[in-house]
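User: Hey, my collaborator sent me this sequence without any context and asked if I could get a structure. I don't really work with proteins. Can you help?
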Amino acid sequence: MKILFLHGLASSGAYKMASSLRILVKGSEVLSPDLPPDPMEALELIRRCCNTERPDLVVGLSMGGFLAQKLRGQRKVLVNPDFHISRLARTMVGEVKYLSPRRDGAESFQMTEAICDRFEALERTQFDGLDEAEAARTRGFFADHDEMVDCSAEFERYYPGRGIRYPGGHLPNYPEIKTYILPHLLP
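Assistant: No problem. I've predicted the 3D structure and written it out in structure-token form, which is a compact way to encode the shape of the chain:
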């Protein structure tokens, strides 16, 4: 199985959930690129990766879940997706330190109003082209104690019956991934 993991805002492909997936999904290949802070550049990279690597599953965490949701025709799992990431991004305008190491060695990036505007533009069209078949390819996981965001009601509106609650916080730890998310990743 080939999995494409998409990290959250201000993170990297080295985020611990990618490592957890490598350990838990034995024999799988987990691709976890460092996504650019700009959502349009990130989507371009993700689509290019999907076209060349042909992952069996895309797993997106937080902002990564928002971006994964934009992919049509792809089996995907959204973990605590933030469908309104522009709100968080607007609170971060200025220099932002990365939360996990990046392959290029960058330690920070500039969150600009222009990046926030591009997130907001994507939010306005994020559910376009969503039909029953597409909804069936998507599963959402929502932490009961998410201290950052809860888009579960919005997810349910567009993906009825496809959401699962689990005990935990915004960033799932290894035991939560193993117990609550992993059983739904395997075909």
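In plain terms: Residues 2-184 form a domain with the Rossmann fold fold (CATH 3.40.50.1820). You can pass these tokens on to your collaborator as they are.
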